[in-house]
Every structure is written in C-alpha cells, then in structure tokens.
Amino acid sequence: PEPQKEAPSSGRRRVNIVEDDDDSDDEDDVAPKPKPTQTKPTKTTSQKKPEPQTQAISEEAKIVYDTLKTKGNMFVKQKEYRKAIETYTRCIELDTSQAAAFNNRSLCFLKLKQYQKCIEDADIVLRLEPTNTKAMYRKANALSNTGKLKEASELYESCVKLDPNNKLAEQELLAVKERMVADELQHMAEERDRLERELKSVQQTVVAAEEKVNDVKTTVRKSKEELGSKEKKLKAAEAEIDQGLHVVKEILTDVKENGVQNESTDGNEGPQEYNPKITPVAFMKKLHSLSNPKDLAKYLLTVDPIRLKALLGKKLEDEHILSFFKATLYMSPSQAFALITGLAKVDRLDMVCMFLSDGDKKACREVFGSLTSYAKKGKLYRIKQGKESDVQVNQDSVEQLSSKFLS
Fold first, then answer.
1. Which of 159, 362, 363, 374 pairs with 74 at a CA distance of 20 to 30 A?
2. How far apart are CA 177 and CA 167, in angstroms?
3. pTM, two decimal places
4. Which residues of 302-311 are buried (b: 16+ CB within 10 A; e: fewer)?
5. What is each CA distance from 173 to 46, 107, 147, in whole angstroms?
6. Residue ranges of the alpha helices (H) in 259-357?
7. How far, in Å, CA of 17 to CA of 108, rounded?
C-alpha cells in the first residue's frame, strides 16, 4: 500500500500516520525484487526474523497465499487492522520469501501505533528488497513517532533519493528536520537556562563567601581589640598584685614590730565582748568607713562571726573579702579562723570569689598558710561565746575552709 499524499503544513509538527488506499497491490511496481541472497537487513531487532525460504512453495500454497493477501488488503481498506494482521501473518507462515505480506503487516502495526513491530516488519522487507520505498517510509514514520528523529531523517532522505516524485516523503523529511532543529533549539534553551542557574548559584556562593570573609575580618578586628583590652587588664592586675604584696609586707612588718596579735602562752584568749546591737545598715556603713586594716580588725572583733551572714546579706563584694583577710593579720589565729568561718556562710560568696584578682587570692593564701601552720602546731582553737575553747582546729578543717574561697 502506498501512503496517501497530504498538503504540507507549516511550523513544528509531529508526524502523523498516513492512510494507504492501494493495499490490494502486490507492491511489485515499487521496485524490482532483488535476490534474497544478495541483501542484508538494514537494522537488527529484538525479535527473531523469519528466514527466507530456499525452496519454492507449491502452486496450491501460492493460491492460498494470494487469497489471504487479498483478504488482508480488504481488511486494511475497512480499517480492521487487527484482522488484517492475523491474515498477513497466515500469509507469512506459508511463504517468508515474499515482502508484500511483511510490508502490509508493517502498515497495520503503524496504524495501531505498535511502532517497534512496524519497524521489525519493515526491516524484513528491506532485507528482502533494500530499495523498497514503502518500507523505508513506514519505518521512518515509526522511528519519528518514537523520537528517533535522526534515523527517521536518514530513511526519509533515502526514500526521496530512490523516488524523487514522492512528495509526501519529502514533506515528512522537512517536518522531521524542523522537529530536529526545534529540539536542538529547545535543548540549547534548556542548556542556557541551566548555565544561567549555575551562574546565579556561583554568584550567590561568591556573595556568601565575601560575607564570610567580611565576618572573619570583623572577628579578627574584634579579637585584636579584645586582646588589647586584656593586655591592659593584665598590666593593671600585675600592678594590683604588686601593690597587694607591698601592703601585705607592710602589714607583716607592722605586726612583727608592734606585736599586735595577742597570743597567750597557753593558746587561750580572754573572753571577747560582742556587740549584739549592731544593725546591718550600721555594719555596712562602718565597714566602708574603716580603710585601715588594724582599725577594721578591732571593730570586727566586736561582731559575732555567726552574724556576718545576716549583717552582710546579699551585699558582699570582692573588696570586702580582701579587707576581712587583711584585718585577720591583726587578730589571733583562732579569732581569724572564726571570722573567716563566719564569712564563708555569707550569701553570694561563690560568685564574688570568682572575681577575686590574682593579688587578692595571694593575700588569702598567705592567711590560710599561716592558719595551717598554727593548726599543725596544735595552736588553733575554735571560738565559743567570745573566747577560745579547748577544741582544736585540725589542718583538714583549714583546707576545707580554704577551698570555699580559692576553688
């Protein structure tokens, strides 16, 4: 059967299956049949192709073949393609050396959009008749409908070369090439869009990297500023340590020369009168007014150490701790231990001790070192009711007390 000729259309279009009206012909007028032994298949398929018969069929079989082929052609004209396929298949079972049944069945598969089977039958035809333009056209049509435009284009070109008057094949060739150009343009547009997206992504990455670099620069600048500030604080702390050591040395010298600490020969002190009427306001006011450690020591000896928590409340500062420890140098070891024990129970002690400078901590260690020495000698006692008791303070108690200030 030959394809029906249609008017050319403009623009990109998909190739349509074209009806044939002369399927009743044996297609012998399309091209002369070459000898089967001189031909090769144009394309391999997944289906095993029938081999051409080497022996001629009987006259009776030829009559049956022609009858079935005519019946199949009638089914094609009636557009009953499935019945036509069954009929052409029976023809092929009788004689595989004839291209006509394969060619007409290929058309039926094309009509039913069974493109792969159409291609397989067209391949058999072209193996039997390499110049059969109908088989070329149908295979090209099937390839075009499966998106294999390059292969379809090559077949259409072969078809036109063999039959220059085949205007329909020429039109389809033009349509396929238009589709190929359109597909290439579409591919180029998609590639352009992809590259634009990649460029945008790279630009965003560059911007983000620049922001990170700026953040790093800012961090470095702040770190330098912070380092400079810490260097200043370190120098101030070193100066404070030197000053604290100088004060401690002066106090120790004063104590050594004037003998302010009142140690009795038997390790017992006389009773100390505490002032029970001291209020928190009066205590804080006095605490701030007494800058001399010796005067502060005399005042603190009138305060029951147990009351320090109530008197100081939540107003304890690091400067108070240093003042108390300096004042202990003008007390007996037992009085100093009692005062520091009371101070250890004041609220906010842990937090305030975190802000003690290195100089302050050194002064505190000096006092605890002295108390530890007295505890080792058995000369450190607990204060009860304002006087030393016979209960000695051991070294472990001093270390436990020390950990509350210097941990």
1. 159
2. 15
3. 0.41
4. ebbbebbbeb
5. 27, 19, 14
6. 280-289, 293-300, 308-312, 318-328, 333-343, 349-353
7. 10
